[in-house]
Amino acid sequence: MELATRLLVIYRYPEQPVTDDEIRETLRQNGQEASYRMYEAVSKLVTDFRHKGDDAAAKQLEEQLKKMLADWEQQGWINRTVNIPPDLIAKTAERSNCARRYDPIRLGIEHALLEDRHLAAITGVQQTTVNLLNPSPDLAPKEAEDEQGKQVYKMKLQVVLDRLDIHRFLFIRGLDLVQYSFGYSRVSPTPTTVQKNMTMPVRLRAFAHVERGKHPIYVLHQKNEAFYIQLGEDKVKEWLAANGLGAALNFKDGAKFGLAILSNIMISARILMITSVVIRLLIHQSVT
After folding, report:
1. 72 and 33 in contact (C-beta within 8 Å)?
2. Number of helices and strands (H, E) in the chain?
3. Is 130 exposed, middle or buried (0-12, 13-18, 19+ CB in 10 A)?
4. Cα–Cα distance, 265 to 92 (Å, whole number)
5. Within 95-212, where are the H helices?
6. Contact 195, 172 (CB under 8 A)
7. Which end of the chain is more exposed for a tag (fewer CB within 10 A), N or C?
8. Angle at CA 212, nearest 5°, toward 210 and 213?
9. Rounded to the nearest 5 degrees, what angle is found at the Cα of 78, between the Cα atoms of 32 and 70?
10. Which residues of 252-287 are buried (b: 16+ CB within 10 A; e: fewer)?
């Protein structure tokens, strides 16, 4: 439930307001029938003022209703002012069929954290995130040391970014990465199996127990440097359509791109896997 609530915020998922009947029942269960009668009376006044054309008075009372709901939520009398759509809850369960690295919901949560920690504010000379159209002195190329050189560099880079439809091209310092391993380790070189023309051991066992029979999780925490590239959504949609993958996703006007990703979890996982392979091939070609 907590995961689905987070997705509501990240993707601006279509909200379903709690109905008056649900509010009444929840307040009744908390012994607050009198509070609901007050809410019902104010709601009727809002309707009456709307019919009379007095929108100012109706709006003022609507603000009072919102405050009542907020107060009841703070008191713990109602759980939330928005229902989580059942199909969103179902999608959080469906993700269990995806490989971890291609789970679109997991990657969406990670990107939201990245946005909050590194991409929301880009200020200062030694900031952790640098817009490469306006690099800090330690990242700027030699030819961009003076003002004229900076303008030439910026113009040339902007031409390349526009050609590739790259909307943001950033450099991130100190990007937190955590790698962990748990569950099993190899115990011997035999028996073996051949995978991708390689001989590999197949015998596994759980990691040795630590205190009170617990299995350890081995963690490696690193601070890395990374490039952040944001592509234009229209070009991505064109690429998906050209590869026969766009029709399976439900793109809606005004909705976040990630909302379409959630419309078909398994297809999205396939897209992420294909994209990962393409990126690795491009990187391999660029260094060979």
Report:
1. no
2. 10, 9
3. buried
4. 9
5. 104-114, 147-164
6. no
7. C
8. 60
9. 100
10. eeeeeebbbbbbbbebbbebbeeeeeeeeeeeeeee
Q: Are 199 and 191 in contact (CB under 8 A)?
A: no
The dihedral formed by the CA atoms of 92, 98, 100 and 103, expressed in degrees to the nearest 10: -60
**Domain definitions of the chain by residue range:** 19-79, 185-209
- Provide the pLDDT for residue 266: 78
CB 170 within 8 A of CB 122: yes
What percent of the chain shows pLDDT beyond 70?
Answer: 81
3-state DSSP assignment of residue 220: strand
Among 136, 141, 137, 138, CA closest to 157: 141
Residue linked to tokens 């920690």: 117
Question: Which residues contact residue 260 at a Cβ distance below 8 angstroms, ignoring those fewer than 6 apart?
Answer: 249, 250, 251, 252
Backbone angles phi, psi at 36, to 5 degrees: -70, -35
Euclidean distance between CA atoms 221 and 178, whole angstroms: 5
Tokens read off for 227: 């490039």
H/E stretch holding 94 reads: helix 86-94
Give the pLDDT score at 286. 60
CA distance 267 to 275: 12
Q: What is the pLDDT of residue 206?
A: 62
> Which residue in 37, 20, 16 sits closest to 78, CA to CA?
20
Band of the pLDDT at 153, cuts 50, 70, 90? very high
Tens digit of each residue's pLDDT (9 = 90 or more) over 238-247: 888 787 777 7
